[in-house]
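Sanity check

After download, print the first record. It should look like this:
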Amino acid sequence: MAKLVVAQTSEEVASLVSAVALAILGVIIVSALYVGREIFVPVALAILLSFVLASPVSALQRLKVPRGVAVVGVVIFAFAIIFALGSLIATQLNRLAGDLPSYQVTIQSKIQSVRGITGGSSTLERAAGMLQDLGKELDKPKGVTEKPVSPSLGSPLGSRPVAPVPVQVLQPDPGALESLRSLIAPLISPLATTGIIVIFVIFILIQREDLRNRLIRLAGSHDLQRTTAALDDAGNRLSRLFLNQLLINTGFGLLIGAGLWLIGIPSAVLWGILAAVLRFVPYIGSIIAAAFPLALAVAVQPGWSMLVWTAALFFVVEPAVGQIVEPMVYGRSTGLSPVAVVVSATFWTALWGPIGLVLATPLTVCLVVLGRHVERLAFLDVMFGDRPALSPAEIFYQRMLAGDPTEATEKAEEYLKERSLSSYYDEVAIKGLLLAQSDLERDVLDHPRLVRIRDTVVEFADDLSEQTDQEPGGERSTIDAEAAAAVEAAAAEPIYPDLPILKNDELPVEWQGAYPVLCIAGRTALDEAAGIMFAQLCNVHGLRTRVEGSDALSTSNIFRLQTEGVAMVCLSYLNASNPAQVRYAVRRLRRKLPRARILVGLWNGMADFERTASVKEASKADEFASTLRDAASICIAAARPDLEALEDAQYAQRATENLGS
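Expected structure tokens:
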């Protein structure tokens, strides 16, 4: 016992030391980024530009252009465009600065009109004047009083006015060398930064494979194929992402610039370029870009129509680009969570200033992509990625534990925009209950929680009672990250044909009872919860189903079980660990319902193949199913054997026949 305590203490100390070491390493990295920002900012810009220019270079290489020529040509062309835009911005700024004094009269007239509407001097203005006078009195030095001023002379009484003595400071004429130095000095830093960026971009594009190999060596060369594929995929994705983002933001700037030109805003080209650049800043970039044209709209026109049209332009173009164009180009998202975007913008702005604000999203996207492909950096994907930290099954289980069917229903409805109800039950809900079954077998799930899960599943299934079990047609992609993750997880499963919906008057007489299908839980409340989902799925397809708890299988209760009109009995098991228990349950049901067919549902998806096969061999049931959809299709086929097109039921039957082979 003492050794165990010592071992636990040593493990805690080791974990604490590791956490402290990671914290110290993080502080060192952040400090290095801040202190060396003069070096790291050009390098970051060069890396991002290399991702953008990689596609044009590859296109030229496919046209048999040598790599060196392609790289140099693309880089020169890109920087020529950047310098041209910079020159255009400088020209527009000079013109705007020259026109600003002419807008003063318009602004003053609008201020006067606003004051006229509010009834002249307001109470707040008078209060502000009083506070200003009071502040002047408090700022006077102690013991100093103002002397009365003569109205006629404009000076204190008893004193004679003194004429001010003019003072003129003359500087010696600078020489030619000094003039040249003052002209070049402001340009040295930008030119040096630009040169560093150009050199790094050319180096990265030319040495792309060599840099990839070095990253592979750092990430781990033990699995060369997987690491190479991951890095190539990450590079291609980032290149497409940044290039698409550049094209979309450029189009956004062109639309804004053209719209402002039509409205009559001065320097519309400047504001279009500014809108394109600031749109790289998430959430607030477009708002900042709209502030300047809106302010000019107030100053230029005496009326208010220009202001209204300018605001309408931004309110229409930005949502259209953000909600329509970007989802079509990017897919569901760029891979970042909203919280990560805000945190990264704050972090990089604090480190590198305004340029950090523009680079925040691209840099964070790079980190997330690396986290998704490099195992050692997986924590970056967890922290900043938009993929849920928990799997869809874990989220469902957690919601059931918390007794929150509402949120689970919302996620299910998002999932149902792309897949069927039976797919959700089999790929998400049943897997969530299997997690609960695992906790139950480890004795970490008590009876009150079991009952809570069962009751929550009842409410959850009732909330989905109006849903249909059909594969959605057309483009109905969900934008919910958790539902999207569930859809991606279920993408490997085939999409089966929709099961038919039966009508009661078309069924055989033995299937027209009040509840022709009876579902009984095998052992626990979790089996009953799975049976509730099966019953809801059968009800959707027109087969009325009743659910009973595991107590119904006891010797004292099975004889009181209501079985009138029952044509099919389904035994629900999440984990049939004891084949004898299943065999005894089937025997009792045979004696109670000699004419009914007995279906055993083993909802573990044949995870334990040997145990499932032994249960099938020992129980002697009529049918077996490993998924809720298979079970529902078997019931439908039994109720309407004349439906020859029910290929799904035949597939389910073949799957169950192969259990013992």
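If your output differs, re-run the checksum step. Summary of this record's structure: The two ends are 49 Å apart (CA to CA).
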